[in-house]
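Let us begin with a simple case.
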Amino acid sequence: MTTIGFLHTADVHVATFDRLVGERAPAADTVHDVRVDLLDSARRHGLTDPAIEEGIAQSIANLERQGADVIVCTCSTISGLAERPPAPTRPPVLRIDRPMAASAVRAARRIAVVAAVESTIEPTLSLLREESASAGTDVEIESLPCFDAWPLFERGDLDGYHRFIAAHVDEIDASYDCVVLAQATMAPAAVLVAEPERVRSSPIAAVEAALAIVR
């Protein structure tokens, strides 16, 4: 049986990714490791904090012990560290936002990046620039953050969080032909906006890419 492992920094992702995998590969199994502390450390100390890489390594090892054939890091802030080439005995690690970024740079001329936490912005911008260079595309990328939404998420008001983000996206100038929702938690906002066709989010694309790796 195929097993997809997930490294999360929020408990809310567990049910979401169980559902997404179940819809696309009912025979597949899922295992999860939730490390809220890793995002907290990144926000307080930056990605150079050695405790973050140590925690990622611990999580990957834990998911491997649980039988993961491929691991998805669902936190855009730390996923760049997680996808570094693993030890030969470890399963491949996919950063959640790479498939989304690849899709965005192929489809757009101007990309607006919306993030609700500051620590996510630079990793997302760097990834989009990397994917644009790899694809040979000339894309304008700009950060248009939505920091005021995050307190709603922290209070557990997910409906308010998603509606706040959707309202923010609807205010973004139409000259941006693609809006990237930088965090997996933001994905439900994509169906609330006036023009969902210009919005890219990461969860579905990442699950499909992970399943493609192990099939």
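The second case is a distinct protein. As before, the sequence precedes its structure tokens.
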Amino acid sequence: MVSKDKIESDLKEALKRRESERVSVLRLLLSALHNQEIDKGGTLDEQEIIPVVEGEIKKRREAIEGYRSGGREESAISEEHELKILESYLPPQLTDEELEDIVKRVIGENPGLPAGPLMGKVKEQVKGKAESRRVIETIKKLL
């Protein structure tokens, strides 16, 4: 279970241990959560925190690709470290077999449904336990 309190607690620990990279990542994550709370007009529950964490992870993945294509390996490695920190705030990820079972069940319940709407139905069921990229690849593989 991830909560804003847990992230704030982890930030305090990182500050005490002088883990500058972790401090930086957690501050950025808390800032993104705060912005989302402002947009919502209230506090976020776990199901609302997960998409924010996923969004930060997506930003890191895109930055890694950009740095690698630009020949900046050192920056890409730094982003990968940040990515690992953020991934620790997601629920345990589904195995490929578990994800395939969910996708097969959704396809069976919704025969003839195009990939886009299927993606939405599968995402409702996995809620942060599988990356969108993995879900899309699995749907394409099974259709």
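The helical segments are 4-17, 20-40, 46-69, 73-87, 96-109, 115-126, 132-142. The two ends are 33 Å apart (CA to CA).
Keep these points in mind for the review questions at the end of the chapter.
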